[in-house]
Design goal:
24% strand; 22% helix; alpha+beta; FAD binding; five-stranded antiparallel sheet; Uridine Diphospho-n-acetylenolpyruvylglucosamine Reductase, domain 3; globular; Xylitol oxidase
Length: 415
Amino acid sequence: MAEVVRNWAGNITFGASRVHRDLTVPRLQELVAAGGPLRVLGSGHSFNRMADTTGDLVSLDGLPRVVEIAADRRSVRVDGGIRYGELAVRLHAEGLALHNMASLPHISVAGAVATATHGSGVRHGNLATAVAALELIRGDGELVPLRRGDEGFDGAVVGLGALGVVTELTLDVVPAFEVRQYVYDDLPRASLETDLPEILGAGYSVSLFTDWAGPDINHAWLKHTEPVPDGPWFGARPADGPRHPVPGVPAGNSTEQFGVPGPWHARLPHFRMEFSPSTGAELQSEWMVPRERALEAIDAVASVRETVAPVLQVNEIRTVAADDLWLSMNYHRDSLGLHFTWIADTAAVLPAVSALEERLAPLSARPHWGKVFTLDPATLRSRYERFDDFRALVAGYDPGGTFRNAWLDEILGPR
């Protein structure tokens, strides 16, 4: 019998007939050359069937660890199975850092890059923007290197696993730095009306959390490289104790607060690497909209709060800078991210997802590739001006459909 594999949230049971672990790159090439279908399982932190397959499911966790810092100390070469938490600790020990981190340090680098998973900050691109080079096994089993500036590179980085198995990545790095995290309670709705751009740009990154039980923002999380003066912040009160992003959840697995300085990798994520992230029993959705229409987007969510709030754990509002990666949700536009952590009930959540997509449609909202969305594929494709170029790139790297699955067939359309 095939190994039963579920995603991190437990809402997806993969249909693979075979699961392969402890693989080498040559063995991966053999599996790919056999013709598939084949998909790669990262850390399992996706909430839809993008990684599913009826054929071979491969894990890169067993690849030999590679953390090779370039001689000029401006980049690091890593294997396709490494996770951000492990990489961050090893980089910090060398006095280096990544420019950004996602909320969770538990996710795999290759999986985060392939889906344009992001982190936060008005001046910071998503995690995929740090990729300077990658190496992948294309559909015929050949190992292909790509570097920034090569033809097709900007289409291959956020690749949805459609072009091949990413075995190595080279990431830009910067000197290590310290971050202080401050949390504020009850940011008034009136402050959003008057000061939203200043609020979102007030730190290295800023996240606003609300459960939509009322008009105000429950918590504002400010991550800053310098000390912040004591006292109110845009009308919000400094938190009188540690907070978890989800209301009512103990704060023990959240990263340290109260402005205590600490390493970049121990403050930029919301959750500590040594603990289970977030709440576990959840689904997630997220949409990116143009940042200049941020208040309009927040109003759109508020207009369906009666549908959203009963199935919501928390809504995080954050920002990501524009980039040039064809299938990035932030392609050519500075973005506001509307991230929703739902209860673990797909049937109950889907009506809220549909309601949000309807209200956000005038903003050309782009859903996060690895999360729950219901947008029809034709509309989704229309929101990416390089989508046809991406399909052509996929056809060149995988003409036989080795990496195809039902989810990709729907997203990409007919071959």
